[in-house]
């Protein structure tokens, strides 16, 4: 059965996890063999370790996940019953047992402990079944949570959308939060811009067959400018930014126009780097947290932390954490500060050198970028990345004058970026800032993230560009 790229990627991740669980099961069986041999009368005698039967691991670790895939153990994880999982797993492990038996008989391979083989197989069965049921439970719970679902818009005529949905299985539809059904033939494309913005939409599926080609092209352009994926069941459309690829929804072939980094192992490693890096950095910088907390308490009345609603990926709001560096009523004084001191940044973003609302110890925290450290908590929660476009307040995002500015929202916001690493005070134009962010998105790689992180370190230590 053909599967989409995202599903294939998920299966590969599960196969890697299951291979590790198989190895762990046989390692545990080898460890338990000695105490069992001592307790059970007439048990196996003589020393035997897993290293002495490594040929078994060379078979079971890489080939068990392949056998599981053959018996469709990885299909329909949300709707599969426990009995179906039990049956598929039993068939796959029985097949592996027969394969090992044939290797022993025909290849005359020896040196395998029957106790390790039996216990390893049994532990493998229960560990993989437990993993499958835990994943099933997690996915079912996520299915009930609207915020965990992918927010999509279906574009096309009512008939075309109905026909499309009839061809998509219920399990796939259960992952979607359909923000709107948008009739391209009857509604102006300007309304699609508004829906993309207000609905924090992640993907638009164009189920078009008889819709005018020009209308589809305008809809794709709206998605392209805002960095939202466009999936099209139609003819090829040329784009300036988005990269065309093919994927599947259910069994229906789709043309995908993507202007953001494509799902890959490199992107998965970025997610791992974010979580692990944030955790380690919190541990390493914990003395600075203590200094900041004590200093703020002594220097200024009010809370230690500053929380503000910022625009996350696709504009979805989240609360960003920082150490407070301004007076408690700083946001109420914003309009007055703009009127009296102006704005050193051209465009909708406010930036002011020597902002009068910053108290002295807060200025020190800003100069050393210590005020940014609580954002590591946002990274741990998956709301931000270590590297990415800086998250802006919602009111500044609403003030964007150009739709293409919203394309910087098509990836997770970050603690540092090209703008942060290169010296913040040297840039006074929002257009230039957006240009740097879009260049980062269009040329993203894991190595680029690492280089930006390495450049951020001296920028922070030297206080370059901080205010």
Automatic annotation (TrEMBL):
It is found in: Membrane. One of its GO terms (cellular component) is membrane. Residues 270-461 form the Bacterial sugar transferase domain. GO terms for molecular function: phosphotransferase activity, for other substituted phosphate groups. The chain crosses the membrane at residues 12-32, 52-71, 92-109, 115-131, 276-298. InterPro entries: Bact_transf, EPS_sugar_tfrase. Keywords: Membrane, Transferase, Transmembrane, Transmembrane helix. The keyword Membrane applies. The keyword tRNA-binding does not apply. It comes from the Bacteria. It is a multi-pass membrane protein. Its main location: membrane. PANTHER family: COLANIC BIOSYNTHESIS UDP-GLUCOSE LIPID CARRIER TRANSFERASE (PTHR30576), SLL5057 PROTEIN (PTHR30576:SF10). Belongs to the bacterial sugar transferase family. This is Sugar transferase. It comes from Luteolibacter luteus. The lineage of its organism: Bacteria, Pseudomonadati, Verrucomicrobiota, Verrucomicrobiia, Verrucomicrobiales.
């Amino acid at each position: 059965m053909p599967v989409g790229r995202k599903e294939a990627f998920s299966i590969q991740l599960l196969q890697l996890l299951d291979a590790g669980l198989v190895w762990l099961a046989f390692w545990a069986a080898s460890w338990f063999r000695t105490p069992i041999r001592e307790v059970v009368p007439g048990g196996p005698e003589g020393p035997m370790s897993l290293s002495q039967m490594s040929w078994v691991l060379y078979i079971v670790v890489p080939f068990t996940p392949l056998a599981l895939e053959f018996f469709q153990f990885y299909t329909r994880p949300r709707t599969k019953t426990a009995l179906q999982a039990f049956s598929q797993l039993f068939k796959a492990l029985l097949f592996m047992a027969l394969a090992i038996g044939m290797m022993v008989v025909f290849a005359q391979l020896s040196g395998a402990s029957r106790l390790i083989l039996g216990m390893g197989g049994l532990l493998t069965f229960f560990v993989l079944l437990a993993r499958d049921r835990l994943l099933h439970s997690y996915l079912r719970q996520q299915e009930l949570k609207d915020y965990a679902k992918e927010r999509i818009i279906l574009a096309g005529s009512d008939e075309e959308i109905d026909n499309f949905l009839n061809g998509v299985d219920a399990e796939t539809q259960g992952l979607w939060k359909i923000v709107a059904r948008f009739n391209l033939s009857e509604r102006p494309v300007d309304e699609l811009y508004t829906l993309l913005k207000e609905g924090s939409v992640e993907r638009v599926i164009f189920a078009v067959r008889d819709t005018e080609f020009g209308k589809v092209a305008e809809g794709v352009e709206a998605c392209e400018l805002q960095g939202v994926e466009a999936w099209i069941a139609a003819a090829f459309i040329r784009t300036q930014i988005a990269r065309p690829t093919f994927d599947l929804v259910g069994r229906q072939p789709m043309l995908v126009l993507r202007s953001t980094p494509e799902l890959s192992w490199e992107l998965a490693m970025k997610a791992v780097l974010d979580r692990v890096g944030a955790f380690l950095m919190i541990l390493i910088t914990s003395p600075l947290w203590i200094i900041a907390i004590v200093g703020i308490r002594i220097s200024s009345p009010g809370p230690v932390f500053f929380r503000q609603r910022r625009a996350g990926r696709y504009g979805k709001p989240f609360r960003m954490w920082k150490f407070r560096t301004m007076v408690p009523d700083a946001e109420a004084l914003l309009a007055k500060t703009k009127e009296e001191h102006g704005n050193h940044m051209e465009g909708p973003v406010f930036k002011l050198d020597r902002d009068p609302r910053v108290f002295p110890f807060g200025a020190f925290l800003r100069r050393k970028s210590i005020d940014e450290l609580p954002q590591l908590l946002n990274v741990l929660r998956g709301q931000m990345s270590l590297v990415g476009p800086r998250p802006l307040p919602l009111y500044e995002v609403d003030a964007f004058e150009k739709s293409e500015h919203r394309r910087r929202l098509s990836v997770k916001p970050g603690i540092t970026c090209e703008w942060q690493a290169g010296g913040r005070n040297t840039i006074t134009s929002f257009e230039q800032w957006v240009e740097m962010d879009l260049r980062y998105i269009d040329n993203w790689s894991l190595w680029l993230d690492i280089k930006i992180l390495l450049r951020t370190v001296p920028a922070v230590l030297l206080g370059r560009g901080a205010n």
